[in-house]
Design a protein that fits this description.
Chain A is an alpha/beta fold and about 425 residues long. Helix content of chain A is about 40%, strand content about 20%. Chain A has 2 domains: about 5-90 and about 110-220 and about 385-395, Aldehyde Dehydrogenase, Chain A, domain 1; about 225-365, Aldehyde Dehydrogenase, Chain A, domain 2. In chain A, β3 (about 115-120), α6 and β4 (about 140-145) form a beta-alpha-beta unit.
C-alpha cells in the first residue's frame, strides 16, 4: 500500500483513539498478551526464518543474539504488557486548572500526540514494547523494524493489530512499513505524522533529522563522559568508569571519554588502566595521560568519537571548570557522571552541564527507561525540547487547553466591564 | 557582527545563565524596570523616529498604532516586569523523584532550554516581554523585531543588556539582529540555537519551518471555528460568534468559520447575520446557508482561509460528527469552540477535536497568555510536541535527569546481585 494512504489511515484512527475508554485500551493490551502466548510457536517459527536467512547473510553474532526471539523472551514481553496494563491512565489527566473568572474555567489536560513514526533496530521485542506504549498513550503508530527481523515483525504486527482491533481499538492504529524507501516516503507525510522517533546509527538518525519537516525525537551520537574529580574515591572511580565503559560497549549510554583531575591523575590512571586492561580496552590519552600510563596518543578526533567498542579516550584536566567546558563542547548531551566527595563540585557540575542526564557517583549505563522506572522506553532523546533522556509514556503525551464558559466574550474584559480572577484551582476537568 | 559569532556568544552566556541565582535574575528584572523608567524620554524619542519614518513609508494606521510606544505603554511594560519578578523561580524545580535503590536517587528537575531565537512583529513592548520571560527562565535570547521598530528595538535592547549585565547576568545573553538576511544566517546556527519562535504571517512562519534544522515553536495559520450545536442557547451563540469574529479581526485567535447545526440554522442564521451586519462582516456561506440568509457562496478555498478581516465563512452541518470532521480537516489546530447545553456533545467535541485549545460556550479570542493567567506569552503554538496554545514561562523550560549514587554500577543489576526498588519519592533535589 502507498505510504501516505497508510499514514492517513493511522491519522484517522488516532482521532478516535484519543477519546477511547481506558478499559478498552487495557482490554486490548490483555488481548495482545493472550494472543502472543497462544501464537508463541508461530512467532518462534517466523523468527527462525529470520535467523536462518540472517546467518546466511553473515549477520554478526551480537546482532543475531539481539534478533533471536524465543519462548522465554516472549514470556518477558508478555510480563511487560501486564505491567503496562497496571499503570494509571495517562490520557485526560488534569495537569493544571485555573478559574479565569466566575464560571470561566481553564484546564490543561494531557492528551496523545497523534501519530508516531518509530524506526527501530533488529530486536523484535522492541516492536511490541513501542506499539504497546503508543496504545496505552492513545497514539497511532507507524513502525519500521530492522530488515533482519522482517518475518518476526510481520507476524507480531499482525497479532497486535488483530487482537487490539477485536478489543475495540480503531482499525489502522498500527501500521508496519518494510523498506528503506518506505521510510523516505514516510518522512514526507508531515500532514499525517506528528513525531518521528528514529533509533539506530548516528548517520541514520542524522539523515532522518535532515530529511523531514516532521519533528524528530531521539539521539544521534552518544558521547558520554565520566569526570573523576580531585576529591573522588579512587576505587569507586575505577569501578564506575569501568562499568560505564565495559558493561555493554555497543550502546549509546556507554562512556567514551574519561576526564581526570591532574592532582589525582598520577595515582588514579594506573589503577584505571589495570581495570580496563582486564577487558582489553584500547586507550587513547592526552599528553599528560601519556606521561603517566602507556596509551596511544589521542587526537582532537578522539574527543568527538563514539567508539561503541572497547576503546576509551582519556584527558587530564587542571580544574572542574576545564572538565565542564570539555563536556559542554564535545558531549552529545546524553549522559555525564562526576565522581567526587566534594558537594560544591557536584552542585557546579550538575547545574552547568548541558546534558539530559547528569549523575553523581553512578555509572552512565543507568540511563535507560526500565532502570529509571518508566516501565519501558521508545527511545532516548538528546533534544532540548519536549522530552530528554529515556522517553516513556510521558514523552508520548502532550496537552490540550480546555475551557468551560457560560457565554463569556472577550469584549467584556477588553472594555473593563469584567476582569480576570486567575485563581489556581484544584479541580479536575470534567463536563 | 557575524550572526554565528553572536549566536555562539549567546550559547556561552546561556551555560552560566542556567546556573544563576534566582535573586540575581529578579534584581536584573528590577534594574531593567528602573532603567526603562529613567530612560522613558529617550525611548519615546527613538520611537518617534520610527513612527515618522514609517508614516513616510505609508505604513497602515493599525500598524502605526501597534508601533507607537509612549510613556503610558512603557508604564504598562514596567508593571509587567514587576509581576514577572514576583513569580516563583521556575528553574531547578523537582518535577519528580524516584528512589531506584538504596542511596541511588533519580530526580527530574526543570532547567532552561538554552538559546531561543524569537522573531516578532512591530510592537516594541514584545521585545521587553519576550526577553524578560527568557531571563526569568534562564534562557539566552536572540531577537529580531519588525524593521519599522528598528530604533525603538535598538534602544530597548541596549537598556535591557546594560541594566541586566550590571546586575550580574552574563554578558551576551541578549542579542538583537536587524535584517532579514540576519534571520537567514540565524536559521543555520543549529549548533548554538536550541529553539526558534517565529511570530508573523503564515508565509513567514512556514518559511522558517522549511528552512532550518532548529526546532520551531509557533503557529502558521490561525483558522479557528465556532460550532453552534442544535442545543445551543442561540443568543449566547450569536454573542460568542460575534466576539470570536469581531472583537479583533487581525489576530490568530479570531474565528474564521462558523459551523451551524441544521436543526437550528433557520432560526440562528438570521440572528447571526443581524449581529455581524453591525460590523459590516462579509459572509460566505454553503448552499444551505445561502437558502436561509443572503451571503456570498463559499468555495472549498473559504474553509482553508484565514481572513484576518471582517469576513467569515458559514457552513450548515447535519450532525456534531460532521462538525468535528470538518474542524479536524480544515482547522489549523489553534482554537475551536462549541456552543451547546448538551454535555454529551461537549464531551465528544472536547475529546475528538485535535486542536491545542478547545472551548465550551466561550469566545475563541480568550486564547492568549495574559488571559490564561500565564503572565505573558512568547507566542502561541500549534505544534503537537513540547508546548501547545499560549506559551509562557513553562514552554521555555525543559528538564534534566539528575542522579545521586554512591558508586552504583549497572553490572550489579545486570548480574542480579542487586535489584531496583523504583519507589516514588516526595524528595526535592538537593546536593
Amino acid at each position: 500500500m502507498e505510504i501516505h494512504i497508510l499514514a492517513s489511515e493511522a491519522k484517522q484512527a488516532s482521532i478516535s483513539l484519543a477519546a477511547i475508554d481506558s478499559q478498552i485500551k487495557n482490554n486490548a493490551l490483555q488481548a495482545i498478551a493472550q494472543a502472543l502466548k497462544a501464537k508463541t510457536a508461530d512467532i518462534v517459527a517466523a523468527n527462525k526464518e529470520d535467523l536462518e536467512r540472517s546467518e546466511k547473510e553473515n549477520l554478526g553474532a551480537p546482532l543475531l543474539k539481539r534478533l533471536k526471539y524465543d519462548a522465554s523472551k516472549i514470556k518477558e514481553t508478555i510480563e511487560g504488557l501486564t505491567s503496562l496494563m497496571m499503570l494509571p491512565e495517562p490520557v485526560g489527566e488534569t495537569i493544571s486548572a485555573t478559574e479565569l473568572d466566575k464560571d470561566l474555567e481553564l484546564f490543561k489536560v494531557s492528551c496523545p500526540i497523534g501519530v508516531i513514526g518509530v524506526i527501530f533496530e533488529s530486536r523484535p521485542d522492541a516492536l511490541v514494547q513501542i506499539s504497546s506504549l503508543c496504545l496505552k498513550s492513545s497514539n497511532a503508530v507507524i513502525l519500521k523494524g530492522g530488515s533482519e527481523a522482517l518475518k518476526t515483525n510481520k507476524i507480531l504486527a499482525e497479532i497486535i493489530a488483530e487482537a487490539s482491533e477485536k478489543a475495540g481499538i480503531p482499525k489502522g492504529w498500527i501500521q508496519l512499513i518494510e523498506t528503506r524507501s518506505d521510510v523516505n516516503e514516510m518522512l514526507k507525510c508531515d500532514e499525517f505524522i506528528d513525531l518521528i522517533i528514529p533509533r539506530g546509527s548516528n548517520e541514520f538518525v542524522q539523515y532522518i533529522m535532515n530529511n523531514s519537516n516532521i519533528p524528530v525525537l531521539g539521539h544521534a551520537d552518544g558521547i558520554c563522559h565520566v569526570y573523576v574529580d580531585k576529591d573522588a574515591d579512587l576505587d569507586m572511580a575505577v569501578a564506575v568508569t569501568t562499568d560505564s565503559k565495559c558493561q555493554y560497549v555497543a550502546v549509546c549510554n556507554a562512556a567514551e571519554t574519561v576526564l581526570v583531575h591532574e592532582s589525582i591523575a598520577q595515582e588514579f590512571l594506573p589503577k584505571l588502566k589495570a581495570s580496563l586492561d582486564k577487558f582489553n580496552v584500547e586507550m587513547f590519552g592526552c599528553e599528560k595521560t601519556q606521561a603517566i600510563i602507556a596509551v596511544k596518543p589521542a587526537t582532537e578526533q578522539d574527543w568527538k568519537t563514539e567508539y561503541l567498542d572497547y576503546k576509551i579516550s582519556i584527558k587530564v584536566v587542571s580544574s572542574l571548570d576545564e572538565a565542564i567546558a570539555h563536556i559542554n563542547k564535545y558531549s552529545s548531551k546524553h549522559t555525564e557522571s562526576i565522581i567526587t566527595k566534594d558537594k560544591m563540585a557536584v552542585a557546579k557540575f550538575m547545574s552547568l552541564i548541558d546534558s539530559g542526564n547528569v549523575y553523581w557517583n553512578a555509572s552512565t549505563r543507568f540511563c535507560d527507561g526500565f532502570r529509571y522506572g518508566l516501565g519501558a522506553e521508545v527511545g532516548i532523546s538528546t533534544n532540548k525540547i519536549h522530552a530528554r533522556g529515556p522517553v516513556g509514556l510521558e514523552g508520548l503525551l502532550i496537552y490540550k487547553w480546555l475551557m468551560k464558559g457560560n457565554g463569556h466574550i472577550v469584549s467584556d474584559y477588553a472594555n473593563g466591564h469584567k476582569s480576570f480572577t486567575h485563581k489556581n484551582s484544584k479541580k479536575k476537568f470534567s463536563i
